Amino acid sequence: MRYSDAGVSIDLADGVKSRIGRIVRSTFTPRVLTAPGLFGAAFAGVGRGEVLVASCDGVGTKLTVAGMVGRHDTVGADLVNHSVNDILTLGARPLFFLDYIAASRLDPAVMTAVVGGLARACRSVGCALIGGETAIMPGWFSGLDYDLVGFIVGSVAKRRLIRPDRLVPGDVAIGLPSSGLHTNGYSLARKVLFERAGYGVEERLPGLRLPLGRELLRPHRCYLPLVHQHLHRVKALAHITGGGFYDNIARLLPAECSCIIRRSSWRPGAIFRLIQQAGDVPDFEMYRTFNMGIGMVLFAAPGQVDAITNSIPGARVVGRLVRGTFGVSVV
Amino acid sequence: MRYSDAGVSIDLADGVKSRIGRIVRSTFTPRVLTAPGLFGAAFAGVGRGEVLVASCDGVGTKLTVAGMVGRHDTVGADLVNHSVNDILTLGARPLFFLDYIAASRLDPAVMTAVVGGLARACRSVGCALIGGETAIMPGWFSGLDYDLVGFIVGSVAKRRLIRPDRLVPGDVAIGLPSSGLHTNGYSLARKVLFERAGYGVEERLPGLRLPLGRELLRPHRCYLPLVHQHLHRVKALAHITGGGFYDNIARLLPAECSCIIRRSSWRPGAIFRLIQQAGDVPDFEMYRTFNMGIGMVLFAAPGQVDAITNSIPGARVVGRLVRGTFGVSVV
Questions:
Q1: Which ipTM value was assigned to this complex?
Q2: B121: enclosing H helix or E strand
Q3: What residues form the membrane-spanning segments (chains A, B) (predicted)?
């Protein structure tokens, strides 16, 4: 028996690796010190007084939609932008990124599209895609072709590290518009739209500009360019991902401090209304599963609000911190 | 419909997260600046003159064996040790680690065992487990329960960064013993042992001290404690993982420099002989799939060899670099 009998072709993998090597080199910054293909990647260290900020995420079952539509160049942007937003909540800017792709079999065209998407999103924020792992595991997945995971490291001056412990009752919650579902809630969205309602990915539905599949694949918005010049005005940032408004705001709240979000302050996009109607999903469930059109919530003292809302398109006050221990309430 | 109807329970996930939070805190070093549970984790930066070294890896289908045996506390050590070895090849010591666990459903006992294993392995090398992601994706996997991926960042003084470009013909290859298959070749091993030979995980086989399943689960050896005091004597290190001797040594070789590995210089352990016999696997295939009992190869100038082999148990000369363009030859 040979390894290829077990479904793993090292030769094919080597071919893809070299193509991927060329793509990732296009993201390299002068601080990348090693060529692709070693056991690890070296990156010129940050200065004293800088803090590293790291985060890890996957794309989740949005990958299933990518497979249904047959389009694999957008999920890379989802992953990179999700990760950039995560470390942005601590005030950090991206330095480098690593990806992990696991698949039952190696499809060179899909792999190249995925890594091309990762690289494009990395380049647009000056982040070097310095490494990664492609794991071919025969028989590993059912119902989809691959998993995609990313790790990001960024940095911020220690005195600018954003710690939510400065939040106090009276601070204002400012919502920034999302571009769609971003990267969360796809298990529920797929069940409602494809299983219960029986829609197909090519379906044209009222209120949606694109066919349903493409609408669901809209890439996760990157908030770095919108937010970075306001970081000194902001006390905390909640990235509205898995767990929706409840979990993602709750993890920032100091003791005795709760948050009221007023949903009348914005109108969720058509895709969210469609899911809620088609699935008969209760409001509470919607706001703890989806971003409902608000992908990032900034918290700032009242005196800082105008400067932020006047300069970020679509930014608006969506709630307020109050004294209390109820946590997060969406009213 | 609710999110839990789609197979995702956020409440259960929150319970596990808090238990995992307590476990990961046990790995925290004074340089960890944030509590678990934020969107990212902050780590005190490295000094000027230090270089960051990052790597990413998965456990692969060794996880399937863990599922067959019903033991989930060893795969964490596999992942951490594999990662520590990868960055060790550039001379780096670990700073922090993040993990990604994807599962079709959340099994709190399995999850706690996995993270407990990660944390133990991290503590033993002074590495902080600062973050991670648990993704519940219903219907995601067939034939196994979860995937486990890790991401490590370490550092090394810039002048001590190991770059293999100093290798020259005449340099000596020194092999360090592995503890078993480590984390590679499990697709082939499982096919040969369980499908073709029909063995069970409880099987007691000649030459193996433990039942077959436990033998296959032996944790990946961590070479940091053995090697770190010799890093100044070493020109390059090859971690013998996926691709075996061929791919992992080839990626280090400068142009005009090739490597001859003499397999008569050590005897592969019983597990490798068992796989080769049961699967009728050609020699070439064995040495490019498995580590064959040598998990790390150090390359050093001849004058440094005795100092290394005299102080690392089991270390022995296994080959040599020669002028040539054939790459790697196992003779």
A1: 0.93
A2: helix B108-124
A3: none
